[in-house]
Amino acid sequence: MLVGWRSFNDALRTFDLLNRQFDSIHDDWLAPGSGREPGRRRAASPAVHVTETKEAFVYQADVPGLGEGDVTLQLEDGSLLLRGERKGDAREGYEVHLQERAPIAFAHKFPLPGRIDAAAVTATLKDGILTVTLPKAKDALPRQIAVKTA
């Protein structure tokens, strides 16, 4: 029996999940002394939760340890681009004895599920969770249509 393709986004999510699993396997093989350059930035992508309300799309990303200067957001070509970087440098006057949190840099592009009002987009960062609220465009909101008798 043939099963139809549900949605292109389902396929993208599957490929993203596979990519993350391959990355984690690859990172497990690179143990200390494996020849990996010290201080090399690993590519990573934060876990993201996307929800929809009547008025907006809400993206929540786990970005622990990052501040507002470490994360950038951009809207382009019907997508939301999330970039971030955590540097591994020690604070001035400190000597590093152990460093288990590696420096990371990431960029992830999310297709927008609908038309939005780009001028009203907001983003907040609290307790390691970045919340991006993308209000829907006014003409994309559902509206009630009155039925009149002829």
Overview of the structural elements:
The structure is a single chain. This protein is an alpha+beta fold and 150 residues long. The chain has a domain of 82 residues: Immunoglobulin-like (Sandwich). 15% of the residues lie in helices and 32% in strands. It is built from one helix and eight strands. Strand 2 and strand 3 form a beta hairpin. The chain is elongated and about 85 Å long.
Summary tags:
four-stranded mixed beta sheet; elongated; 150 residues; 15% helix; four-stranded antiparallel beta sheet; alpha+beta; 8 strands
Rg calculated over all Cα atoms: 21 Å
Q: What average pLDDT do the residues reach?
A: 80
Which percent range describes the beta-strand content? 25-35%
Q: Write down the CATH class of the domain at 46-88 and 101-139.
A: Mainly Beta
**Which geometry do the CA atoms define?**
elongated
Helical proportion, percent range: 10-25%
- Identify the CATH architecture of the domain at 46-88 and 101-139: Sandwich
Q: Stretches where pLDDT falls below 50 for ≥5 residues?
A: 31-41
Number of E-type strands: 8
By helix and strand content, what is the structural category?
alpha+beta
Give a quick precis of the structure.
Helices cover 15% and strands 32% of the residues. It is α+β, with helices and mostly antiparallel strands and 150 residues long. The protein has a domain at 46-88 and 101-139: Immunoglobulin-like (Sandwich), CATH 2.60.40.790.
